[in-house]
Structure formats: structure tokens, C-alpha cells
């Protein structure tokens, strides 16, 4: 399958991706086997693994995986498949001293090594040390667990330079945070439509009045690529217009909003007042994506402010975005659209789509190798 690219244009302008990038089921399968299997993907938060043997399962790029805390308090990730006859080992979340396959009771240590199996001693020449669960590359990044199915993947600090340090400045207590709200919605659109919508604020003033008047000043909004990260920055609204109270003296960045979108499907957001929240996306099909919104406090303590912000966000920005992205997906299926002009302002700013241009380049690199 050959897809049109910007290089096919002759007018010298920058155009959006061809609609088939968002509607073609064959291309979506290519993404699952390449892009999603070779990039850093969010698995969960470390607070879900408090004691050795705690585990949770999840799916990335069509693969069932599970994270577990080993006896050395290290997070490990394995393919969720027994090395005997391929039965899945765990489901959901729980805690176990050993990983025991439900099919034939082959038993694994928390480091993935084989401990025992029924009647294995009768197999001449067999070395139990030769069998281990298939490992997945794993990093804990500011308390968040990420995995990459590519065993040769570069570390996250190389993909996203400076992000770990910047997050520590904006949220000094980030390692002590625990989630108190997970908001989950399904959007009937291609995952890239949802990512693009998140990655520009060109539409904010028109479509997100609460966010644009009660949280940030849209006229100060800017987005710049940093490695495979899109860094969003803006000022907060005047204090008398904010929808919640903040103490500007509590931290040098207490009056700032910043977001770090980590290609391809995760974002750290820091609201004014050093409030951390996150987005992550899980594609379900070529035209469906599940979006998760996380809100956090130190130690998972209750907070009226966070409760209010989560409710406000769910009833405004989240709900408003569903309408937008689903309309875009319908438009991408129209014969009347072939990929529109991107507004690229050399000066950047809220009314420039240079962040979308960067996303499209990363998408082409991942899918077409160009």
C-alpha cells in the first residue's frame, strides 16, 4: 500500500496527513506491529505494586503483558504466556508469592525463572535454568511504569530529554504521588485524531471556554518539540478568574501550566498550583480509542480541590473533546477531504500548528520509515 505524503505536494505548503492514515484498517495493523511495538507505552503507576508479588496485567500492541514487583522491590514486566504450552499466566491484578500457570502448574519465581513443573525431573538432560518467562523492557519514570516491546529501544531519557528533571521542578513531590481518580472514556475516532486534538490549542478558545478562561491564558500558549516530546507552556489565568485557589508563593512554578506529551500516547500535565494530571490513550480499533485521565495527590490523600478539578474537567474539556474528535473522524471518511493546509507560524504561539507538523513527521517515520 502506497500512501500520499507531503512530498507529493507541489505548492510548497505544509499539509495534513492523507485521510487514509486515520481510516485504513490495514495501516492500523501496521501501526500495531511497528509503532506500538517499538515505542515507550504506559503500563501503570508504581503505587499498584506495593509489596513483592503484587502484579497487574494489561495489553500493548495486541500482546498480553503483566508487571510484577520482585523480591528486590524492582518492577519487572513479562509476556503473559507460560513457556510450557502457552497458557496465559495471570489476569487482572493481585498478589502471589510465585507465578503459577493455571494449566499445568508450571511455577515461576518473581524474576521469571522457572522454579518447578510437574514431573520435569523425569526429563533426561533438561536444565530448568534454561527456561525463563519472556521479559519486556521496563522503566519507572517519575513513578510511572513504561514498557517497550523492542529489547533494543533507547532509554526514555534519550527519547524525552530533560523531561524527568523538568517534572521534578514543577512537581517536587512527584515520587510520592498516588492516583485518586481515573476517568475513562471511549472516543469513536482513530487514536491519532485524539492525539492531534490534544496537541494543539488552536481550538481551545472556541471550544473549551472553561479551560481557556478559568485555567490558562490562551494568548500565552505555545508548544515546542523536544526530542520525541511536545512541551506545552502557558501562564495561568489571573487569580480572580481561576476556578480554584492556588498559592503562588508555594513553588517557583506555582503560577505555570505545562504539559509534556511523550510520543506516541502519554502526557504529563501540571496545572497551576503544581497539580499533576495525566492523559494516556489505548487504541481499540482503527476508529476507536480509549482515553484515560489520571489525577494524583501525595500519598493518595483526599482533596476537595482535585475532586473539583476532575469533575470540572470531565464535564467540560473531556466532554467537549469527544464531540470534536468524532466529528473529525466522520470528516476523514468524506470524499470531500484529502488533507488540509496546516497553519505554520514561524513565531509559534497558540494559533500555529507546528506541533501537528512534528506529530505527522513522527507518524510517517513510524509507519512509512520516511
Short description:
This protein has helices at residues 20-23, 25-33, 156-159, 163-170, 191-198, 204-207, 209-214, 304-332, 354-368, and strands at residues 41-45, 54-60, 63-69, 75-79, 93-95, 99-100, 107-108, 114-116, 135-141, 144-148, 177-187, 222-226, 229-235, 256-262, 266-271, 275-285, 288-298. With 370 residues, the protein is α+β, with helices and mostly antiparallel strands.
Topology:
Layout: H1 20-23, H2 25-33, E1 41-45, E2 54-60, E3 63-69, E4 75-79, E5 93-95, E6 99-100, E7 107-108, E8 114-116, E9 135-141, E10 144-148, H3 156-159, H4 163-170, E11 177-187, H5 191-198, H6 204-207, H7 209-214, E12 222-226, E13 229-235, E14 256-262, E15 266-271, E16 275-285, E17 288-298, H8 304-332, H9 354-368
Antiparallel strand pairs: 1-10, 2-3, 2-5, 3-4, 4-9, 6-7, 7-8, 9-10, 11-17, 12-13, 13-14, 14-15, 15-16, 16-17
Amino acid at each position: 500500500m502506497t500512501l500520499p505524503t507531503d512530498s507529493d505536494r507541489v505548492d510548497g505548503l505544509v499539509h495534513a496527513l492523507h485521510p487514509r492514515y486515520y481510516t485504513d484498517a490495514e495501516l492500523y495493523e501496521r501501526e500495531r506491529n511497528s509503532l506500538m511495538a517499538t515505542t515507550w507505552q504506559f503500563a501503570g503507576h508504581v503505587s499498584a505494586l506495593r509489596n513483592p508479588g503484587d502484579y497487574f496485567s494489561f495489553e500493548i500492541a495486541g500482546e498480553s503483558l503483566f508487571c510484577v514487583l520482585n523480591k528486590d522491590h524492582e518492577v519487572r514486566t513479562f509476556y503473559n504466556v507460560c513457556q510450557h504450552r502457552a497458557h496465559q499466566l495471570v489476569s487482572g491484578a493481585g498478589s502471589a508469592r510465585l507465578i503459577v500457570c493455571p494449566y499445568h502448574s508450571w511455577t515461576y519465581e518473581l524474576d521469571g525463572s522457572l522454579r518447578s513443573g510437574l514431573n520435569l525431573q523425569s526429563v533426561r538432560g533438561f536444565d530448568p535454568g534454561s527456561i525463563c518467562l519472556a521479559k519486556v523492557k521496563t522503566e519507572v519514570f517519575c513513578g510511572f511504569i513504561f514498557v517497550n516491546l523492542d529489547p533494543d529501544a533507547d532509554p526514555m531519557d534519550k527519547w524525552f530529554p530533560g523531561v524527568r528533571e523538568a517534572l521534578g521542578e514543577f512537581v517536587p513531590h512527584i515520587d510520592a504521588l498516588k492516583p485518586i481518580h481515573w476517568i475513562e472514556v471511549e472516543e469513536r475516532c482513530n487514536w491519532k485524531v485524539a492525539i492531534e486534538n490534544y496537541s494543539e490549542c488552536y481550538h481551545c478558545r472556541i471550544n473549551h471556554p472553561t479551560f481557556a478562561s478559568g485555567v490558562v491564558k490562551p494568548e500565552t500558549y505555545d508548544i515546542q518539540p523536544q526530542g520525541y516530546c511536545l512541551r506545552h507552556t502557558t501562564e495561568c489565568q489571573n487569580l480572580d478568574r481561576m476556578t480554584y485557589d492556588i498559592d503562588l508563593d508555594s513553588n517557583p512554578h506555582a503560577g505555570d501550566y505545562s504539559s509534556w506529551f511523550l510520543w506516541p500516547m502519554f502526557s504529563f500535565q501540571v496545572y497551576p498550583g503544581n497539580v499533576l494530571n495525566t492523559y494516556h490513550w489505548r487504541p481499540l480499533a482503527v476508529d476507536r480509542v480509549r482515553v484515560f485521565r489520571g489525577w494524583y495527590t501525595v500519598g493518595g490523600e483526599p482533596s476537595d480541590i482535585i475532586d473539583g478539578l476532575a469533575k470540572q474537567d470531565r464535564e467540560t474539556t473531556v466532554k467537549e473533546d469527544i464531540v470534536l474528535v468524532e466529528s473529525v473522524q466522520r470528516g476523514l471518511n468524506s470524499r470531500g477531504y484529502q488533507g488540509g493546509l496546516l497553519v505554520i507560524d514561524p513565531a509559534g504561539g497558540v494559533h500555529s500548528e507546528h506541533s501537528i507538523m512534528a506529530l505527522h513527521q513522527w507518524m510517517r517515520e513510524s509507519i512509512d520509515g520516511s
